[in-house]
Design brief:
By secondary structure, the chain is of the alpha/beta class. It is built from eleven helices and 25 strands. Helix 5 packs antiparallel against helix 6.
Length: 422
């Protein structure tokens, strides 16, 4: 009999499980997600800044698996797990399973700051990226017609919280847009000289996990673009008009972009002992969740300390999710075929971050090597282009990148706000 496999979450990890087991007779698979498409998170910031269409980095699940006879898609959210009866309760139904995989990724962590959560602009989902695009465009338009110089400055000042790749990429993009686009298209704002792009982080460096060479180059390059970098600086409050930091200093600003932290999600039905740091699910070397028999976790939501090269758990990056997804899929096949399972060992392919036009950094672990500038920028473009889900996504993205490179501009800055009525 076919085994019923339920995958909760269609990100990098969940998608790789489904693709690996597509049309495999051993399994009847249901992929559950709260949206009906897969998207590519590393390029969200380009959707948010109007350099890519949302369709360039996303693709519908049903279209993706239209030729997979054993994969079904269910649009819904996980509410409860009944480990005794092997059932999951979704927001719109109930399903039985033989094997359950949690691949829900992470959500934004506001560290208990309700005002920040209420007023800041998130950058975790495609909806949030489109919301950011609309909000920022609306505020620029408001600044263009305002007669109050102080209000204009507040509307045009942007603070990006979080010095990781997302924060660096966003602040670099905003700085370049300010020079190449805003000055040309908004003559009403030519007089505005005090507006700034700030990049703040609570640590003493940008791109913490990367090499010292990458950190130093990034700091210098981002400052050259005109970004004001504030390290050892923590946001503690934001009322929508003023950002307050831990040292009680403030910045008058309406635009706080929150890229400062993530946390995994909790689900009813799993034992408390299954959760570790930042709500990540503790798993063994085969990604099985502690305290369960047939439930697994992969990707950002999984915490595995059995890999000797990563005793504090794996980094929450795409490559880990993809590799864990493929390994788990093969192990599930091994279980149903009475073969030995293979322990997961992460193969680190390196890390990279883009700063701006022809500026990026790349760290390779084996052999240990660092490079920067135009070559690193081209490597970043190639890797991210090849990582997109479909040929259509690749072609679409390459086209928009080519236009943006030669014109230093884009034509995707439309304010479109659906009214959410069915």
């Amino acid at each position: 009999m076919k085994k019923k496999l339920i995958i909760i979450g269609g990100g990098f990890a969940g998608l790789n499980i489904a693709k690996t087991l597509s049309n495999v007779d051993n399994f009847e698979i249901t992929l559950v997600d709260k949206v009906n498409y897969n998207f590519f998170p590393p390029l969200l910031y380009q959707v948010a800044t109007g350099f890519l269409e949302s369709s360039s980095i996303s693709y519908p699940f049903r279209k993706m698996f239209s030729n997979s006879k054993n994969i079904h898609f269910w649009l819904g959210e996980l509410i409860n797990i009944n480990t005794t009866e092997n059932k999951v309760t979704l927001s719109n139904g109930e399903l039985d399973y033989d094997y359950l995989v949690i691949a829900t990724g992470t959500t934004t962590n506001y560290f208990g700051m309700e005002n920040v959560k209420r007023h800041a602009i998130g950058m975790k989902t495609l909806e949030e990226a489109l919301n950011m695009r609309n909000v920022l465009l609306q505020r620029i338009e408001a600044a263009a017609i305002s007669k109050n110089s102080e209000e204009q400055e507040q509307l045009m000042t942007i603070v990006v919280a979080g010095g990781g790749p997302t924060g660096v990429e966003l602040s670099g993009m905003f700085a370049e847009m300010s020079k190449d686009i805003i000055r040309k298209e908004y003559p009403e704002l030519e007089h505005l000289t005090t507006s700034k792009i700030y990049l703040v982080d609570g640590s003493n460096t940008l791109l913490g996990p990367m090499s010292i060479q990458s950190q130093q180059y990034t700091l210098e390059a981002i400052k050259e673009l005109g970004v004001v970098v504030k390290l050892n600086t923590q946001v503690v409050d934001f009322d929508g008009e003023t950002i307050t930091f831990k040292d009680q200093s403030t910045i008058k600003c309406k635009n706080l972009i929150w890229a400062a932290g993530v946390t995994a999600m909790r689900f009813n039905g799993l034992p408390e002992e299954s959760y570790g740091r930042a709500n990540r699910l503790i798993v063994d070397e085969f990604n099985k969740i502690k305290g369960t028999n047939n439930i697994y976790a992969v990707g950002d939501t999984a915490y595995m300390d059995s890999d000797k090269n990563f005793p504090n758990g794996h980094p929450q990056v795409a490559q880990v999710a993809m590799q864990q997804g493929k390994n788990l899929a093969k192990n599930l096949l091994n279980i149903t075929s009475n073969r030995t399972q293979k322990e997961f060992n992460y193969f680190d392919k390196g890390s990279m971050a883009i700063i701006g036009r022809s500026k990026a950094v790349v760290d390779l672990p084996k052999p240990k090597f660092h490079f920067k500038g135009t070559l690193a920028w081209l490597a970043w473009l190639f890797v991210h282009l090849m990582s997109l889900s479909t040929p259509r996504n690749k072609v679409n993205t390459f086209y928009h990148w080519a236009i943006a490179y030669f014109t230093k501009n884009s034509s995707l800055r439309m304010i479109i706000r659906p009214n959410n009525k069915i």
